[in-house]
Amino acid sequence: MRNGGGEAVLEARDLTKVYAPRRGQPPVHANRGISLTVHKGEVVAVLGPNGAGKSTFLRQVAGQLLPTSGTVRVCGIDVIASPLAAKRCMSVIPQECSPYDSLTVEEHVRYFGIIKGMDPRTAPGETSRLLSEVGLTEHRTKLIRELSGGLKRRVLIALALAGPGNQLLLLDEPTTGLDPASRRTVWKVIESLAGKGRGVLLTTHYIDEAEYLADRIVIIAQGRILAEGSPLEIQSRSASKGRLDIYDVDLLSAAAKAELDSLKGVWPVSFAREDHLRLAVPDPFSPEAVARLQGLSGLGVKATLAPASLEDAYLTIAGEMPET
Fold it and tell me: Which candidate, 137, 107, 135, 134, places its Cα nearest to that of 123?
């Protein structure tokens, strides 16, 4: 954790959500007994395939969806029994949300801040502080319609932070649809907020986003937590310690194809498509692995040898689950 630990701002215990059956279909178990804690100054990233239950879990934490069973407490307040009090301690940025085009950045943040309980007498100064915190000071007089996607996302983060008492920030796929540069700018804003003591819970499909931001990663599939730990702890659970990637497989010479067939008899295939093949290597630093790479290079094959990644571990744990 960035602040060396802190008190819990979120405690979810055995959270379950079951949707009633429709038209003769069986009930849908969106969440199955999920327990998760987020502390002050900590970023927790929830990874999982489509239909895993990530957004359902976030909506229950936010008080937008009643769980079938289980408990949720935010800042020690029961979200189910006292939803309004709990919501004063947290802010939510849903996956699909956009600010109003006709307002300036400054108007937008000040207006929503007052709605959320900001004192109108101190609103101008508080608005300036928030704009500075998310790097929007130079854009304060621009209309929302004039902003890029990344800047609009920062406006939403400023809105989430407006008003008193925000200790938990809930982000549902916060960088979906943004270009790489904008994504990294949003990452730095999120990292800064956690560094100032806020707890952050985010869902994402991006492995690199979780690896960059998270103190702790939670992998969910079919409504259950399959793994939880730091990025390095999750990475250590890969089925192999290394990977050999071979590119332009569809363009290989006959000799190169024969060598590749030989390799496939030694190391299992972990990923395959027409032009790209990945083999799981027990030890990427072994003399055998290095010699095999050199042999491929000598045949004009484009190949790389590297330690197993967080993505490899994710696929080991969650599998390549079908979308539901």
Answer: 107
Q: Are 101 and 144 contacting, i.e. CB atoms less than 8 angstroms apart?
A: yes
Q: What is the pTM of this model?
A: 0.83
pLDDT, tens digit, 9 for 90 and up, residues 144-186: 999 988 888 888 888 888 877 789 999 998 888 888 888 888 8
Minimum mean pLDDT range among 68-82, 83-97, 217-231 = 83-97
Q: Residue ranges of the alpha helices (H) in 22-104?
A: 54-61, 83-87
pLDDT confidence of residue 153: 85
Domains and CATH numbers, the chain: 8-235 (3.40.50.300), 242-308 (3.30.70)
Residues of the chain with pLDDT > 70: what percent? 97
For the record, the structure tokens of 227 come out as 């793994």
Cβ–Cβ < 8 Å for 185, 136: no
CA dihedral 237, 240, 245, 249 (to 10 degrees): -120
**Single-letter residue type at 176:** T
Q: Alpha carbon of 45 to those of 10, 39, 190, 228, 322: distances in Å? A: 14, 13, 12, 10, 21
- What residues does 73 pair with on adjacent strands? 11, 78
Q: How far is CA 54 from the centre of its chain?
A: 10
267 vs 263: CA distance, rounded Å: 6
What count of residues does the chain have? 324
